Amino acid sequence: MVGFTDIVLSHEVDVFSGSKHESDAAEFETRGVTVRARKPATT
Amino acid sequence: MTVEVGVASVNREVLRRQIQAKYRDVAVHPEAGFHFHTGRPLAQMLGYADAVVDGLPAGTVDSFAGTGNPFLFGALAPGETVVDVGAGAGFDTLIAAQQVGPAGQVIAVDMTPEMREKLVQSAASLALSNISVREGYAEALPVPDQIADVVISNGVINLCPDKQQVLRELYRVLKPGGRIQVGDILVHTPVPPEAKDDIELWSG
After folding, report:
1. Residue B83 forms beta bridges with which residues?
2. How far apart are CA B50 and CA A32, in angstroms?
């Protein structure tokens, strides 16, 4: 199976802290993150 | 380790209508206040440079909602073709269009008419002619195969019940060697099935 490769995750950000969604987000330890990944040059 | 990503059983059409209603409000009444952060304070939290935000129309900035920063890994290159999945009011679309320049293009896809309308107006106000705004869903992008050098998205995939199908679509539209730069959310505590079926939790 071919899929994404070279997957890199950024630092996590507590994006719901201080928002009205904070308690729900905290319950599931929700964090914002940015992902970079690549489609192989040859598939 | 491989983790299976299931398809949530939530009613897809009901969920889409509810999310559209929420993001219609973000487009039209961004000052209303939501269960998630929006606007310039959120952009600062996510590491967008003030100078970049200052260059965008105020209405675009006010309606910004996201969970990451697709440009954290560096600027896009001039001439690149970009697909912005769930572009919203176009905060990331406009940044991408400026970075890829007139030799590049950005295809912005969103399901909410008010967001698309706002994006078209904002692109016109900045005289950006390299943006194509299209109606569509992340699970069925109105985009040809292998057209994109990069796919960006920000806080959208978590709102889609069938995440595997979304990822298949991102993969399909990418050129070989292309990349995704996607902001979204992680949960460190497993979400129980009853919470996954709670549409209020999905749409906030």
Report:
1. B107, B151
2. 20
Could you give the angle at which helices B113-125 and B12-28 cross, rounded to 10 degrees? Answer: 40
pTM of the model: 0.92
The answer, yes or no, to whether residue B95 has pLDDT greater than 70, is yes
Q: What are phi and psi of B52, to 5 degrees?
A: -70, -45
Token pair 């398809």: residue:
B7
A18 touches chain B (CB under 8 A): yes
Q: What is the ipTM of this complex?
A: 0.90
Residue range B8-52, pLDDT digits in tens: 777 888 888 888 888 888 888 888 777 788 899 999 999 999 999
* Residues of chain B contacting residue A30, judged by C-beta atoms under 8 Å apart: 185-188
Closest listed residue to residue B120, CA positions, set B136, B133, B107, B104: B133
Q: How far apart are CA B64 and CA B105, in angstroms?
A: 21
Least Cα distance to B178 among B81, B99, B108 occurs for B81
**Interface membership of A26 toward B (CB under 8 Å):** no
Chain A residues within 8 A of B151 when measuring between CB atoms = none
Region class of B173: left (phi > 0), else alpha (psi between -120 and 50), else beta? alpha
**What six digits make up the tokens of B138?**
């992340």
Contacts of B76 (CB under 8 A, 6+ apart): B82, B96, B99, B100, B104, B149, B150
